[in-house]
């Protein structure tokens, strides 16, 4: 249920982006059938839930936490030490950096149309317009010039990464977002996650 609720909330945020009034969703659409959820968790069918059974109402979350614990328990002894926790966090941070670097390289290559290893102002304008959703106005021109450290009129990969890392704080003008009508989902998405 937690994952379904998260996904539905994310969909609502996307649909509501740019709207002047709040997006309303019928609450039963977001709520699982409480009776089914209760019965699924009541393993001994006595009509009441122990704490362990109660946790199973959120089985997806429990399973996710079990997997998180298993990933951190490097030696498999059933305990997570501070050293194991720190090693896991460091490993995840390194993995995130690698993924971000690969992503940045992919975006740089995608917008480097002439494949000269540099992004011209025209190439960066396409990136700013299509990917960042900002207008290429005076504020953009000023930020491009500021990002162009060696003042050659183009951004090398390092300059591009700095541009990309700092553009939100650069007071750039966002393109207007058209108001999108609410789209009803027919038939409704399932709100119950079943596991084996």
Summarize the structure.
The chain is mostly helical and 196 residues long. The protein has a domain at 93-170: Recoverin, domain 1 (Orthogonal Bundle), CATH 1.10.238. The chain has helices at 2-16, 27-30, 34-41, 51-55, 59-72, 82-111, 121-132, 138-147, 157-166, and strands at 119-120, 154-155.
Verbal overview:
The chain is mainly alpha-helical and 196 residues long. The protein has a domain at 93-170: EF-hand (Recoverin, domain 1, Orthogonal Bundle), CATH 1.10.238.10. Helices cover 55% and strands 2% of the residues. The protein has helices spanning 2-16, 27-30, 34-41, 51-55, 59-72, 82-111, 121-132, 138-147, 157-166; strands at 119-120, 154-155. It has a two-stranded antiparallel ribbon with strand order 1-2. The two termini are 15 Å apart. 9% of the residues are buried. This is EF-hand domain-containing protein. InterPro entries: EF-hand-dom_pair, EF_Hand_1_Ca_BS, EF_hand_dom. GO terms for molecular function: calcium ion binding.
């Amino acid at each position: 249920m937690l994952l379904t609720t998260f996904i539905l909330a994310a969909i609502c945020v996307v649909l509501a982006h740019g709207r002047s009034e709040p997006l309303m969703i019928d609450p039963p659409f977001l709520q699982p059938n409480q009776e089914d959820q209760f019965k699924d968790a009541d393993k001994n069918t006595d009509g009441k839930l122990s704490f362990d059974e109660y946790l199973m109402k959120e089985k997806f979350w429990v399973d996710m936490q079990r997997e998180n614990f298993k990933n951190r328990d490097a030696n498999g002894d059933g305990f997570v030490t501070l050293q194991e926790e720190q090693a896991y966090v460091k490993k995840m941070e390194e993995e995130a950096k690698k993924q971000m670097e690969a992503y940045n390289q992919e975006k740089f290559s995608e917008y480097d149309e002439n494949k000269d290893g540099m992004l011209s102002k025209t190439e960066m304008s396409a990136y700013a317009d299509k990917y960042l959703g900002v207008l290429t106005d005076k504020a953009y021109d000023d930020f491009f010039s500021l990002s162009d450290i060696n003042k050659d009129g183009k951004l090398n990969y390092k300059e591009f990464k700095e541009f990309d890392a700092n553009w939100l704080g650069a007071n750039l003008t966002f393109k207007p977002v058209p108001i999108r009508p609410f789209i009803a989902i027919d038939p409704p998405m399932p709100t119950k996650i079943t596991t084996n």
